[in-house]
Sequence to fold (253 residues):
Amino acid sequence: MDALIYTFIYIIIFLFGIVIGSFLNVLIFRIPKQEEFVKTRSHCMTCGHQLAWYDNIPLFSWLSLKGKCRYCGAPISPQYPIIEAVNGILYVCIFLIKGFTADAVLISLLASMLLALSVIDFRTFEIPFGFQIAIGVLAIAHLALHYTDWAEYVIGFFAVSLVLEILLLASKGRAIGGGDVKLMATCGLFLGWKLIILAFIVGCILGSVIHIIRMRVSKADKVLAMGPYLSAGVMIAALFGEKLISLYLGMFH
Fold:
């Protein structure tokens, strides 16, 4: 009986995740174009036809329409179901790891913000400031839950971002982007100083390895968007950081 209940709960979490993922797609497509994303109804990107509610069911509408617009037959980007599915899977994984806690809720929302800004940064080399504000709000909410350790999180705000800000000024923006600095600041406030340092190290390693592979395989440009890699580092630190740090320190005992 307990297994059935837990299965049902995780199905609900997944469904909630894909609904949020559907909204992330709106942000990903509209924010770079500076389009309204709150009041304007969803529409086909090719013919402009406003979509009915049954065309907007996350994941299932794209599958039922076989990836084509109901009205003009134009292909619908596979990004829609991919982002929705990834966000739903992330939510399930986060709750499996963190349990049914307030932290799990906040980390899930953080994951959504990082997913959306990663796609935008990968395409445009810019991290919209609105995402920084949203992550900052989540960080403050997280700090309120762990107010007894407030110093760790306040130090986390500066631990990586201050070094990157100095690098930004010294290189005049050639070595690091301002959006990356702000991302490390707000995520540092969320994670605390130990985890944000780990997140930055992991993000740099991932960025170096993956981008070298991309340059070799797909002839990618030498300039890379750090947002996706730093975001991956943040999520790894948020979910596994304490265990990784303990494992590392245990090597010296």
